Amino acid sequence: MIADIRLYPLRIPRDVPYLGPLEEGSRPNAQGYIVRPGNRTVYPVHDQTLLVRVEAGDGTVGWGECFGVVAPQVARTILEELFIPFVIGRSPHDVERIYEDLYDLQRVRGHFGGYALDAIAGLDIALWDLRGKLLGQPVWQLLGGLRHERLPVYVSGLPGRSTAERSALARSWTDRGFSAFKIAAAVADLGEVAEMKAIRHAVGDVPRILVDLHWRYTALEAIQMIDRLCEYDLHLAEAPVAPEDMDGQAQVARAVRTQIGLGEEWRTVYEYLPRLQARCMNVIQPEIAHTGITGFRRICELAQAFHCRVMPHATINLGIAQAASLHVAATSASFVMHEYQHSIFDRNKQFIRSAMDCQNGFFDLPQGPGLGTEPTEEALSFEIGRN
Ligand code: MG
Predict the structure, then answer these.
(1) Quick one: 57 and 203 in the same domain?
(2) Which residues does 29 contact at the CB level (< 8 Å), separation at least 6?
(3) How far apart are CA 377 and CA 356, in angstroms?
(4) Which among 47, 80, 118, 332 has the fewest CB atoms less than 10 Å away?
């Protein structure tokens, strides 16, 4: 029985903001947020997240993590006011039923995604962790069996100040055994083509290079851009056009000679289904802190029916969501490689207890029971409002 649920919104200071140093003249606002002009999106200069701690009647504890990159208090309020009272007293073995019941609570209000689903996601991850611990099994085992013991990764983001610095960083990663990279259009100050050319030159012919286009282009602009990037053997173009433009997504996917990856901003099978039917992408990139384990697995199974590959997204988080993502990815027949947010994971792994690590191009799967990953006491000292 689920006896208690507690929430921990965390804010962990960083020396260099995610995606690299601030642009000239850019200063965080009073809440600690900046807008990256490259994609007009708000980012925190800290690492922010929302942890969920569920406790069973026998004292066993499960941990989950919601997408809390911006405004982590929103999912907290939704959980406290709406969802938690309907979960206390239920069995953690009903985790998928609980996911569906919580989704149903908000349907008539029109909350089919967004913060409401982020709240469900973190709770769902915590319940899977708890269930695994109660059964003495890793989560991957509960999901039907292991396919990948070590998970290949691509290095995401090269937080240098210039194309030259980022090229040198890419080179240093190849020296450490990593052979896939994703470059970020939002910070490519000389443009995507110059960035791609420089990185390709720095790493040589073999490594795979992906480009995140950050939803910046019209379909025609994206097709022309991707054609030029393909001259440097582009492995995948991510998010070329606005997420609202489903026809544009399908048009790009049909026209280009490389893979299109989409999906980090979607939360349920209902958001994926029409894009899969319209053949908008070849690769899905679900983010588990948006989807939960239940949603993530259902999205992967749906994508498999459309012969899409899976390259999970990795967000700014403490590492609980990262562990959950690896557990599900390890059971997916369509999994190819996982995003590796080194500038976040490597820094925050000091705040978790886990065997999970990323070396020589691979993530090691954390060992259970449950997720095999918990926050340290020090992590909880970053709770917003505690200090
Ligand atoms: Mg992205």
Answers:
(1) no
(2) none
(3) 18
(4) 80
Give the tens place of pLDDT for each residue, 280-323.
Answer: 999 999 999 999 999 999 999 999 999 999 999 998 789 999 99
Find the 136 Cα to ligand 1 centroid distance in Å. Answer: 35
Tokens of 36: 């990256």
The parent domain of residue 103 ranges over: 2-136
Task: Compute, in angstroms, the gap from residue 214 CA to the centroid of ligand 1.
Answer: 6
DSSP 8-state secondary structure symbol assigned to residue 319: S
Q: Which amino acid, one-letter code, is at 232?
A: Y
Residues of the chain where predicted confidence (pLDDT) is lower than 50: none
- What is the whole-number distance in angstroms between the Cα of residue 55 and the centre of ligand 1? 34
Expressed in angstroms and rounded, the spacing between residue 369 Cα and the centre of ligand 1 is 31
Cα 182 to ligand 1 centre (Å): 9
- The CA 270 to ligand 1 mean position distance, Å, reads 20
Measure 36 CA to ligand 1 centroid, in angstroms: 13
- Residue 354 is given by DSSP the state E
Same domain for 108 and 240? no
